[in-house]
Each structure stands twice: as C-alpha cells, then as structure tokens.
Amino acid sequence: TVWLARRACQRHGAIVMAPASAPLVKCLLVLDSEGKRVAVKYYGEGAEDLATQQAFEKSLYAKTGRTNARGEAEIVMFDQTIAVYKFVGDCMFFAAGGADENELVLAAVLQALTESISMLVRSGVERRSLLENLDLVLLALDEIVDGGNVLETDAGVVASRVAMRGADDGSSGSGGGGVGEPSFTQAFGSAREKLARALLK
User: Fold this and answer.
1) How many CA atoms lie within 13 A of 125 on its CB side?
2) Taking the CB of residue 93, how many other CB atoms lie within 10 A of it?
3) Is-contact 41 26, C-beta < 8 A?
4) pTM value?
5) How far apart are CA 150 and CA 129, in angstroms?
6) What distance in Å separates the CA atoms of residue 152 and residue 143, rounded to the nearest whole number?
7) pLDDT one-digit tens code per residue, 8-28
8) Which tens digits make up the pLDDT trace of 40-87?
C-alpha cells in the first residue's frame, strides 16, 4: 500500500552521520518531468545493477509524477523503501532509504540537495541548466552522501565545498601537461558539454 503524507523539510543545518555498517540512504535521484534521468547516485547492495535501478525509477515516477510536491516535500512508501521527494522547476528530486529509516533525516538530505543546487546553478533549476552544470550537481551529491552515509545537510556548506572543489580542479589543470595538451578537467568539461548537447536535442 502506498502511503503519502505531507512533511515539511524543517531540519536546517543538521549534520547526520549514519553507521558505516548500515547505509542510511539508498539513492539520490534527479529526474526530469518525464521521469528520465538527469543525475542519480545509488548506494549499497545491488547499486550497480542498471536494470534494477531503471525499474525502481520507473515505479517511483509512476507513483509520484502526478503529485504536487512543490511547497513542501512529500513521502511515498513502497517495496520496502521510503522516498522523500520534491519538485523544483521541471525536475523531481528524491532521497530514498529503507522502510525503517527516519523520514526526517531523508527530508534533511533532500533539502540540502535542492537548496545547494539552487545556490550553485544560478540560471535556475531546470533540466537544461542542470545538464549544463552536471559536474556541479554530481559534486553536490557526493558532498551530501558518501557510500550511503550522510555527510552534510547544510546546503550552504555543501555549495561552498562544491565551489571550492571546482576552483581547485580548474587551477590544478592549468599547470600540468604540455602546450596543446588538454587537462583532465578540460577533457571532462568537454565530455560533459557534448553529453548535455546530446540530451538537450
């Protein structure tokens, strides 16, 4: 049975640490308005099974795509999973954990994700802008959750760390390699731009 309940994300600035032996967060997802992937991270057992991931995303979108979780986050429970989600712009953000996980912790994670990305992507949280800034989005995911463990739920701290990592990557690439040799950061940026253009067609 699917259970939906309104729940505001009220835990600002809390840092929640999960036991390393039991990952708290199963996945962080950013999907577009059609349920297609923008950015996703899975953690724990079976996390690398693409078919399982896609089936989960399809089921999750089917249960949440027609709701109106904009002002507040919403909760959905199914298949031994609890997911807290919210719409921002034309994208859907999810933080999911096991059925026995604390939804307030997941809500804090979700809030950190949506707010930090809003700070980092100045052009607005839309599918196009997120794809154009995919490196920042993925760095934000990594700063919030690592291996299923919650690292940080203060959006300002997350955004600051992502900005610093981006600056470090840019500066570190400027001194290496010979003339005409692209740095790793430049190569990654070029690949990202090509991917974004392909997805935006």
Assistant:
1) 23
2) 24
3) no
4) 0.74
5) 26
6) 7
7) 333 344 444 544 444 589 999
8) 999 987 777 899 999 999 999 999 988 878 878 999 998 889 999 999
Strands in the chain per DSSP E: 3-7, 25-32, 37-42, 73-78, 81-88, 91-98, 145-146, 149-150
CA dihedral (193, 195, 200, 201) positive or negative: positive
3-200 topology per CATH = Beta-Lactamase (3.30.450)
- Residue 168 phi/psi, 5° resolution? -65, -40
> Residue ranges of the domains in the chain?
3-200
Residues whose CB is less than 8 angstroms from the CB of residue 133 and which lie 6 or more positions away in sequence, other chains included: 120, 121
Q: How many residues does the chain have?
A: 201
| Helix axes of 184-200 and 134-144: crossing angle, nearest 10 degrees | 110
- Judged on CB neighbours under 10 Å (0-12, 13-18, 19+), 197 is exposed
Tokens in use for 116?
């930090």
Amino acid at 191: A
Largest pairwise CA distance in the chain: 61
- Rounded to the nearest angstrom, the gap between the alpha carbon of residue 99 and the centroid of all alpha carbons in its chain is 20
Calpha distance 36→146 (Å, rounded): 23
